[in-house]
Amino acid sequence: MITVSEALDHLFALVSPLEPETVPLAQAGGRVLVKPAVARRDQPPFDGSAMDGYAVRDEDADPGASLTVIGEAAAGHRFGGSIGPGQTVRIFTGAPVPKGASRVVIQEDVTRNGDQITLGSKLDAKTHIRPAGSDFKIGDSLDAPRRLSPSDVALLASMNIAQVEVTRKPRVALISTGDELVMPGETPSPDQIIASNTFGLKALLDQLGAEPRVLPIARDTRSSLEMAFELAEGADLVVTIGGASVGDHDLVGDVAQDLGMQQAFYKVAMRPGKPLMAGQMGDAAMLGLPGNPVSAMVCGHVFMAPMIRVMLGLPACPAPRQTARLGCDMLKGGPREHYMRAALDDGEIVPEGRQDSSLLSLLAHADVLLVRPAEDPPRQKGDQVEYIAL
Ligand SMILES: Nc1nc2c(c(=O)[nH]1)N[C@H]1C(S)=C(S)[C@@H](COP(=O)(O)OP(=O)(O)OC[C@H]3O[C@@H](n4cnc5c(N)ncnc54)[C@H](O)[C@@H]3O)O[C@H]1N2
Ligand code: MOO
């Protein structure tokens, strides 16, 4: 059996960044920017007022001074003239600061009477002016590759970038396998259960920015599996669920190989997720996940997600790990790297008592996957341990 890290190296060799496409900014959130986006203007494009008040010359900004209001500057409407000695312009937040003014006195510090104002006895030291280009300047850029956050999208809009080049979404075909499965909402026979991890993986793929397609469930026969692989035609990644182990009805690996799948590996020294397989199938990468619901979901986070990130043009990295303080003692670990459902509370991590790979309810309640290396020695409360956020 190979290690998780060796398996990831094989998987990264099976995928490469997809081609770019251009999308309107309104559809750019969550997509991966392909090349740096360069600002087409300065922001703000003028020295602007940060407050509602009165624009004044520095020389006139004395406590108690009386000034004459000669006009108004509002957001979108500048005052065309300039301010001379003893003069002021009524100004609002976002308006260009008139020529001659070097500060804005907030209206709370002013008494107005007709076109005369009197400055208060205490003025703050701030200019309340945002200099031109103080946010960004023409030519400043947002670097790529980068998954565009809501804040990034706002920044791009501000840079007057209406369309962006992003990586095409990876097309992923999800094939559930097994005579025991029915789709959610259907009526199972007494021996059947509902396909669950299929939909968990679909949600994960949506979140990762892929384009998942849930195919009809393949039954435990060669012909049904062959048909499912046929339906997966056109996918960049084909993900099968179940039928990966050594039982008489576990046919996925055999059928895939008969259809030309070049196997990269089978079985990984991890728990859960041991009977994982992967390979190249025509133009697509193939990832065969174990059927146990938690195994499939854990492999989704540990293997499928990093593959998708590479296809999106992001760096080839394992799922990011963080560290936390263990909240209890743990006995010696086993021979396989163990991904344990755990609670993380106030910086302290505590694994669930039960770790059977069929228990989805525990996965749904877990905050993180605590990662124990193979042959981990006994651990004490307070030790630092690694985890992957869910
Ligand atoms: N003799 C051995 N038996 C098993 C081994 C082994 O090493 N030797 N490994 C066990 C491990 S570990 C796992 S994991 C499972 C993986 O088996 P398969 O990938 O062949 O999965 P199935 O047998 O098809 O299903 C296992 C389990 O999961 C349920 N399942 C399958 N697909 C779904 C789905 N889409 N949604 C919900 N539940 C699903 C299925 O009904 C089974 O209960 O093998 C062990 N056996
Ligand atoms: O690896 Mo299985 O995936 O332990 O349940």
Give a verbal description of the structure.
The protein is an alpha/beta fold and 390 residues long. The chain has four domains: 4-18 and 168-311, Molybdenum Cofactor Biosythetic Enzyme, Chain A (3-Layer(aba) Sandwich), CATH 3.40.980; 27-43 and 136-165, Molybdopterin biosynthesis moea protein, domain 2; 48-130, Molybdopterin biosynthesis moeA protein, domain 3 (Beta Complex), CATH 2.170.190.11; 322-389, MoeA, C-terminal, domain IV (Beta-clip). Helix content is 19%, strand content 30%. It has helices spanning 4-14, 150-158, 197-208, 222-231, 252-258, 293-311, 360-365, and strands at residues 20-24, 32-33, 37-38, 48-49, 53-56, 66-73, 87-91, 103-106, 110-113, 116-119, 129-130, 141-142, 146-147, 163-167, 171-176, 181-182, 193-194, 211-214, 237-241, 262-266, 270-271, 277-281, 284-289, 322-326, 337-345, 348-351, 368-372, 384-389. Strands 8-5-7-6-10-9 form a six-stranded mixed beta sheet, with no helix packed on it. A hairpin with a 2-residue loop joins strand 25 (337-345) and strand 26 (348-351). Helix 1 packs across helix 6 (293-311) and helix 3 (197-208) packs parallel to helix 6 (293-311). The longest helix has 19 residues, at 293-311. The protein starts with a helix and ends with a strand. The model has no long low-confidence stretch (mean pLDDT 97). Molybdate ion (MOO) is lined by residues 271-274, 290, 292, 295, 357. InterPro entries: MoaB/Mog-like_dom_sf (IPR036425), MoaB/Mog_dom (IPR001453), MoeA-like (IPR038987), MoeA_C_domain_IV (IPR005111), MoeA_C_domain_IV_sf (IPR036688), MoeA_linker/N (IPR005110), MoeA_linker/N_sf (IPR036135). Its cofactor is Mg(2+). Keywords: Magnesium, Metal-binding, Molybdenum, Molybdenum cofactor biosynthesis, Transferase. It comes from Roseovarius phycicola. Pfam families: MoCF_biosynth, MoeA_C, MoeA_N.
